[in-house]
Design goal:
The protein has one domain (6-61): Ribosomal Protein L30, Chain: A (2-Layer Sandwich). Helix content is 29%, strand content 26%. It has helices at residues 20-28, 44-52, and strands spanning 6-11, 37-41, 57-61. Strands 2-1-3 form a three-stranded antiparallel beta sheet, with no helix packed on it. The chain is globular, with a radius of gyration of 11 Å. It starts with 5 loop residues before the first strand and ends with a strand.
Length: 62
């Protein structure tokens, strides 16, 4: 499904005290600490994880 598009994802809120599945989604995106930015492929799987924890992230098209 790789269409060549990429997304820049930045963790803006802490994972402390969050639901376990939300912490797993953040880790699955490759984020480990606050204000860290990673670039991920724009796939349905990544979009689903981003949607689940959208309240903690900042997303930009890369």
């Amino acid at each position: 499904m790789a269409n060549g598009k990429r997304l820049q994802v930045t963790l803006r809120r802490s994972t402390n005290g969050r639901v376990y599945k939300h912490r797993q989604c953040v880790a699955g995106l490759g984020l480990r600490r606050m204000h860290q930015t990673v670039t991920v492929e724009d796939t349905p799987e990544n979009r689903g994880m981003i949607r689940k924890v959208a309240h903690m992230l900042e997303v930009q098209e890369a």
